[in-house]
Amino acid sequence: MKRVYKAVLVVAGALLLWPALVLAAPPTPKGTLVYSDDFNDGGKKSGMEINLKGDPDFSRGFHPPGVYQMQIAKPNDTRAILLPNQSYGEVSAQVEIWDNSDVQTGDVSQGLAFRAQDPTHYYAALIDARKQQFAIRKLDGTGNWSDLLAWKPVEGIKQKAEHNTLRVDASGNTFTAYINDEMVGTVQDSTYSKGAVGLVVSNVDAQLPHFHFDTIRVYSTEPGPAPATGPGTPLPVSGRSEPGTLPAVLILALALTGLGLALRRRSAMATGE
Prior knowledge:
CATH superfamily of the domain at 33-205 and 215-220: Exo-inulinase, domain 1
Strand content: 35-45%
CATH topology of the domain at 33-205 and 215-220: Jelly Rolls
Number of strands: 14
Number of helices: 2
Radius of gyration: 29 Å
Structural class: alpha+beta
Distance between the termini: 128 Å
Shape: globular
CATH class of the domain at 33-205 and 215-220: Mainly Beta
Largest sheet: 8 strands, antiparallel
Order of helices and strands: HEEEEEEEEEEEEEEH
Helix content: 10-25%
C-alpha cells in the first residue's frame, strides 16, 4: 500500500510540474529554416571572411573539424562578422559556441549579432562563459554601446571548452534569448527593424582569446538569401564545343579564309589569269 501511495505522489508531482516544464521549453521557431551552415566546407556556402590578412588584431576563418574561429588580440575591442546577402526583421537565429582559448583568464564574451545594419550598428546577444553571465546590448556606432539587458548571472552557461547553444528570437520590437534551451531574457527596442545576422566576439582584458562557432541556423517568415542570378562566369577555352556548334575562333578563321579566297579570285579575274 505504501508503494502505491508513493507512486501516486510521484505522478501527482509530475503532473503539477508539467505546465512549468512545458512553459520553460523554447517555442518552435516561426517561419522556415532559411539558412544553415556547419562550416564544414570552408566557407563556400556562407561566403564569410576567411583568414584575411592585414589586421594583426583580429584573426578569423575556418579550420578543421569544421568550425568558424575568431581571435581578437586587442583589449577593449569588439568585432562582428555578418552573414552576407541576408536581412531579416522576423528572425530566430541559433548557434553553437565555446571558448577555445588556451588561457581562461580575463573578461571576454561571444555571441550573435542580429538586425545588423553594418559591423558597427546591430544588436548583440552575448555569453561570458568565464563568469557565467549573459547580456543583450546595442551598438549604435563605433564604441557607442548601451545595455538592453545588463549582464546577469546564468547558472546554465557551460564553462571552458564546453559548448553552449545560444538562440535569439526577434519579433517586432521584442527580443527573447535562450541558452541551452533556457529562456534567459526578454527586451524591447525599436532602433533597428531589420538587418543581418552574424557572429560577434568581445575582449575586455584577456590575452588572445580564441572563440569557436558551429552549426548556425536561421529561421524566418521572410525569404532567405536569393540564389545567384544572371550569366555565370564564362567557361575557359577547352578545345571542345557544344554539339552542333563551332567555337567562335574557328568560325572567325573560316570567315577570314573565305574572304581571302574571294579576294584572290576577284584579283585573278581582273588580270585575266
